[in-house]
Please model this.
Amino acid sequence: MTSETTTNEKLNFKQILPVLVIVLVDLMGLSIIIPLLPLYAARFGTTPLVIGILQASYPMMQFIGAPILGRLSDRFGRKPVLVASQIGTLSGFILLGFANSLPLLFISRIIDGLSGANIATAQAAIADSTTEKTRTQGLGLIGAAFGVGFVLGPIIAFIVLAATGQNYQAVAFTAALFSFASILLTSFWFKETVQQSENPEASRKRRPFSFDAMRNALKNPAIGFLLVIMFFYRVAFGGYEQLFSLFTLTRLGMDARDTSGLFVLAGITIIVIQVVLIGRWSRQKGDRWLVLMGLGALAIGLIGTALTPAAPVPWYEKEKVLESMAGKGEFRVSTQSINIKLPEETAKGWSGITWLLVASIPAAVGGAVLHPAINSLISKSANPNELGGTLGVSAAAYSAANAVAPLFYGILFQWFGGPVPFFVGGLILAGLWFFAPRVVK
Model:
């Protein structure tokens, strides 16, 4: 009895390893493209607003696709849904490589967004393969795979660009190679995790998705408030991620290379938390504690970021930053056309970057624990036969927030200044932290 209990409390890493590797390879393909997408679009004479809409198109398609793929995986199994969605992602990357107009660019991101909604299926496969004791750790490892992918992807993109003379098409085709590798891994390594339904006929008749399913999930008090937390956490943290480089540019005079270094440091912090600490914290403190701690830490991190002193880094030179933004070769634009207001070279010092590094620590901690902890609580409250569909609704809320975040933060940034969106995001999370103890049991 003691031996069986001990086994149930330990994560079967060998069983979930194929899912983690597949997610990692998928995310490396995606993260190779993300940093270059605005520059890719700029070749076609787009405005910042259109670029923002382009960035929002991917998560909006995920919002539509995630519940559908999640429910289909309940009906047909995780493996066929993963393979089909990965084929769609591969098609999107190939089309991106051949895109010679803005409409083709949009079509490629729409296809990839619908296909990239397979994260709900991967999360469901992890939930299938874990117990209630180990589920948070398993879902946390998916978050760690995200972190590793987002650290390695930009590095690979930098190497490909350097080797091909800034050829953006080569980066898109490299992403396609990673997508093709994920198809092979899923086809030949991943084993189906869905158990045969006791009522196959009812399973076949279950609709792939309906808005009733989403409404029912929201009506469940245990799940509904968790979905609200998921949405607003992602609006706050997603906007933080997507506008962080613009904030550091206008506040501290940091160019893309400098900010990439901060992203790598944050990514490493998130990986350490999700690989080493989150499983231990979940077993010792519970998922509810993780959610509350994550909300508080992220609120402190965002408000701290908003209060960063406007002191450019010591090595800041305005003309050099403008030159790096203008680009080189056929993609070069005039520095006069850059409308971003950069700080002056007065008052340079270490206070701004030091403050920001300190504020980034609680932000990274909160961002690392919230997603897996919320999904773990949702999975424990869901009907086992509806697990994929319920996690699909969660992924839809996550994707909808990713679409709202750049627009919400961008409007606040443009109208009220760089610190305001981060401050507002922190206040939203502080409000959720206040109410969560009364609702999350």
Summary: Residues 221-252 form the longest helix (32 residues). The chain has two domains: 10-189, 213-325+341-441. Confidence is low (pLDDT under 50) at residues 1-7, 197-209. The two ends are 29 Å apart (CA to CA).
